[in-house]
Every structure is written in structure tokens, then in C-alpha cells.
Amino acid sequence: MASLVYFRKISESPESVEYLFGFDGSEETCRLMMNTGTRRSLPVDGNINYAFLKASRKINSLYGETDVWPEHGVSAS
Asked: Domain of life, per the record (predicted)?
């Protein structure tokens, strides 16, 4: 069974990037904050779950490939 977690950037500053994420591309309801210096992420609501981990890892992976914080994307497994 496939698992898809969608994400899209909603804000960016020199210190952090914020993303919405979720299982449905039209209803991304959770938020994560990525520290641009350390590349560590935190869930805005404090809930570390499967979707958060998938989105965070994919965002970091894409950043590692391009040195640009992605505007949007999907993690598929």
C-alpha cells in the first residue's frame, strides 16, 4: 500500500521555513517549522507523527540536492 504525504511552503525567513503538510494534497492541515541553520524541523502543534517525519525527511532531502528550500512536493513510499 502506498503512502503519500504532500507539503507546500507557506513562509520563509532567514532563520526558518514553514510548511503545511498532510496526506491529502488539497487538505494540508498540519504545519512544520524548519530551522534553516541546523536543518532541524519541529511540528508547530507539537505532534511528531508519521506524516511529520515523512514530510520533514523529504524536505531535507530536496534541500540537500538543490540548496533551495522546496516550494512544494510529495513524499511517496
From this structure: Bacteria
Quote the CA–CA distance of 21 and 53 in Å, as a whole number. Answer: 11
Query: What is the full DSSP assignment across 12-70?
Result: E-SSEEEEEEESSTT---EEEEEETTT--EEETTS---HHHHHHHHHHHHHHHHHSS--
Torsions phi, psi for 55 (to 5 deg): -65, -45
Which tens digits make up the pLDDT trace of 33-74? 999 999 999 999 999 999 999 999 999 999 999 999 999 999
Domain extent, residue 43, equals 4-74
Under DSSP, the state recorded for 2 is -
pLDDT at 46: 93
Provide the number of structural domains found in the chain. Answer: 1
